[in-house]
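In keeping with the milestone schedule agreed at the kick-off meeting, the structural modelling team has produced records for the first pair of proteins. Each record is given below as a sequence line and a structure-token line. The laboratory manager (R.T.) confirmed that both were archived under the project's standard naming scheme.
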Amino acid sequence: MTTIVLWVSNLEKSVSFYKELFEDQHPYLSEKFASVSNSNNEVLLHLLPEQYRSEPTLGEDNPIKPVFTVNSIEQAKLAAGQNGGRIQRETNEHEPWRYADGNDPDGHVIQVRERI
């Protein structure tokens, strides 16, 4: 399992996004923290203090890009679109994986992958 910590401006929106992406029926959620996971991935979401919150900044100029294993990139695209994020249509293949880039609701650059 891979675990990553992300600071977010809207905890509920980010929990909804990762809950659907990971197909997690029972994420842990408190006032300022959440853990969303499946057998391959875990994201620990920390609510940013109010003075540091901003609108999402989408783009590729981030120093990291976490890669999350999903059952289906097509399902991930739907889940992302319904929960404030997006997964690009374009995919790349590098055996044994198919990859697609995207953004979560806070604008963090992410990548999803499915086994071919």
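The second protein of the pair:
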Amino acid sequence: MLEHLDDVLQSVLPDGEYAKLTRFDEAVAATTDRGDFHRCLHCARWAVDLADSLGDDHARHVADALRTWVEEVRDTAYAVEFGVMTPGRTVTDLELAWVDRAISTAEQVAAKVGWAAVPWEQLVEELVAMEPGGS
């Protein structure tokens, strides 16, 4: 999941921001796929918060599907239980779509306020820190 995020960010970040992304290479490489459901969910929540913080209707529109899903998961214990560090479980295309939508939201926000105002580095740090057992 983190490799997917890295690839997507690499494709959208301007050169100056991309240079910042490379500092996460070692930490990302040291992670496993355990907890990827929670990482994907964290990306969805991050996108919703980002769109809301800007107050821009277009960014909110991009995040609307994620917003609905995040609210449903919050109310559905099974969905959260399903993703709890299940050995052998792999991240699904649907979950990677949440990551893609988060980055699309970030792009919309960056188009309005610039990438420097988008806390994408904090997101990557938080996702790396979600590694079970610490990394």
